[in-house]
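User: I'm putting together notes for a lab meeting next week and I want to include a structural view of one of the chains we've been expressing. I don't have a solved structure, so I'd like a prediction I can at least talk through. The sequence is below, exactly as it appears in our construct file.
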Amino acid sequence: MLVSLVLFLPPHPDIMCKGHIVKCRVYNPHPPLHEYHRSGDLIIGAVASYNFMFSFSIDFSEDPPAPMPLGLGVVPKNYQHIAALEFAVKEINENSQLLPNVTLGFHVYDSYFNAKSTYHATILLSSTLERFVPNYNCDLQNNLIAIIGGLDSPISLNVATVLDIYKTPQLIYGAAPVMNDKTPGLPFYQLVSKEALQNEGILSLLLHFHWTWIGVVYMDNKNGERFVQTVVPMFSQRGICFAFIERLPTIHFIMEILGSLEDASEICDRIMKSKANVLIAYGESYAVAFFRWMPLLKATPKGKVYIATTQVEHTAFIFQRNWDTEIFHGSLTFTLHSSELPGFLQFLEKKNPLSIKGDGFIHDFWKQVFECEFLNSDPVEVDVNFCTGEEKLESLPGEFFERRMSGHSYSIYNAAYAVAHALHAMYSSRHKHRATVNRERLELKNQQGWQMHQFLKDVAFNNSAGDKVSFNHNGEIAAGLDIINWIVFKNHSFHREKVGWMDPQAPRDQAFTINEDAIIWDSSFNEIRPLSLCTESCHPGFSKSVIEGEPFCCYDCIPCPEGKISNQMDLNDCYKCPDEYYPNQNRDSCIPKEVVFLSYEEHLGFGLAFMSIFFSCVTALVLGIFMKYHNTPIVKANNRSLTYTLLISLLLCFLCTLLFIGHPVKLTCLLRQTAFGIIFSVAVSCVLAKTITVVVAFMATRPGSRMRKWVGKRLANSIVLSCSLIQVGICSVWLATSPPFPGLDKHSVIDKIVLECNEGSVVMFYYVLGYTCFLAIICFTVAFLARKLPDSFNEAKFITFSMLVFCSVWLSFVPTYLSTKGKYMVAVEIFSILASSAGLLACIFSPKCYIMVLRPELNNKEHLMTRKG
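Assistant: Thanks for the context. Below is the predicted structure for the 869-residue chain, given as structure tokens.
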């Protein structure tokens, strides 16, 4: 005995009060299986609960059973599935080219959304109609060929469990059951795309609109668990986070309703408090009817974009007639692809309970959707409306009945034609000669369902809408998915607009198509694209910084560090510009760098060049004065040739700085450092020679001194030559191994590309500079020790001051040079050369020039030889 408890609720929203039921009663506790029989040579049997499954069978019965009453807990919109099957059978029977001389009929049974009724109905299809004897058929009027069904995968799996015994083919027009080691290995034929295509479509939709903070609500069953286990890692890899994943409780008994509604109320709370504006709804075909409880449990969760999967239909239970439906306005649904069938609308307009016999569903469907009673019904209240049978289906809200063909109805239509074409191919292959009608009927009776498989696999035809229908080697149809935008009006009617699709035959990167301009969003979004983010997007110039303990979609926005930019929204990290570019002030774009070098046109280069020429002229003037007073005692006193060599080397030192200014070329790069090093070494060597000469000269004046043989030009020349040759050797090794060359410095200065002379070997550069400083330190030490020698004109004092200036300049040069960048490094070196050379010139030669020009009376031998105590 089949026992079914159906909840009866008045069609008014005031039945809910703070999430608790005020009234309820049990209605029709023992509902029989509802049936719809249409006789014919071929019978399409079906199991339904407004969750229909259909089957093909051989049946020659003529008097169908009387219609049975239907309980109130139904989904009336699914009645269109019966209409689609009836329409397909009608077209097949009227087509003389398909199954000629054969009339097609059908059987429809109700499964009541439960396994027990589904098993019962499926066994009825394979048994004698008048007598329910499982696995026994005592006549030849019900020879099962194939089954179409069901709408939800649990129903299809229950059917497959029975059909596996008989190897009868099953054509599934809804979600396919997941077959594993514990489920039957029955080959079934799938009229819908794989769920993987739908998951890819949802992911593409989220990425297109940059919705990275979403919620998921699913029904508590194995399919829902599998969906969550599939999409969570898949979506997370593409940067999408889940604000919440809520499992809706499944109601099995009426006493569970109160507890389930309390759980649902808590779920509504979490949905309302979440910042996620996008909600993915996964469930069975009747899931929307359960989602519609939310406005009654809590405040209406508006401001959300609902993304529903293919199984979720926009449906309602009868008692939800006046309930708010605007929460689904602007929602997006992935639906099975469907096309408008010629003549289907006119077929629906002619349907009424007065013209159809054997339909056990239409009377109860009619009574519930039009809120009326037929005259031959059970006693009813006096003020009730009576059904005339002339009510118009087009006046019904879409949640109860749609005239536009749904994706599931379209799949049923194609399934009916697929079986018809397979049967036609099977009979055509066995009829080598013309047979009589009676013989054909006899052969029909002897056909078995398992024989259909090889013909179903090869089915290929174009339906009346022009769409091609065929199965691949896995028994799957290459059907795409439509993306529907639901536009709900205040009168509970709605319009569905196709705004995109998923094409399984297109390349992966082209499978998803969306027309954003055609989408109508919920009014709370002010007709602009909704946002669903855990954190506001990071603008260009900023990067994301993940907050510890939060999902990676929740982050802080931090400015890009110096030298880096971000030119897009929500970048995980800033990046450096190419070497030829640098970040702008906002650090959101790259600007081309300016190529610079120390040129004569700029003030710094011009000033340094002017100083170089000025000191060169001063040095030349000093040289001229010394040459004019060539034979005076003060010029003769300290080796005239050494003095002239020092002045000429200082002149060249001033002029060599000009090699550092201007556009670097290969020749200037080779000469600038080596020429400076050698010339400076000669100058310092001359000063060292003058210092040593002074010391030797005073030591030679002592009685019995052996130093007299060293007095003269020979010692001085040897010192200058030997010290200079060492520097020449160092520079030669430098030029031979790693010479300087013109180069670009792209990194020292952020916004400039410095055209410079690359030193080639930095080590050799510091060897050259270090050797010169080494000579200067020796010279300074010797001069310092000889500064107090008794003489009226002791040159060692002036050499000490000159070397003090020289060493101070070059000791300051090293840290200053290393701390500057770009062309200013060149300027620092030029300044150091000028300053140290000017120090030598001033400290050594200015006292002598003063005597020769302004105090000529002091320029005599007596004065120079006078010793001071």
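A couple of points you could mention at the meeting. The radius of gyration is 51 Å. The first strand starts at residue 6 and ends at 8.

User: Perfect, that's what I needed.
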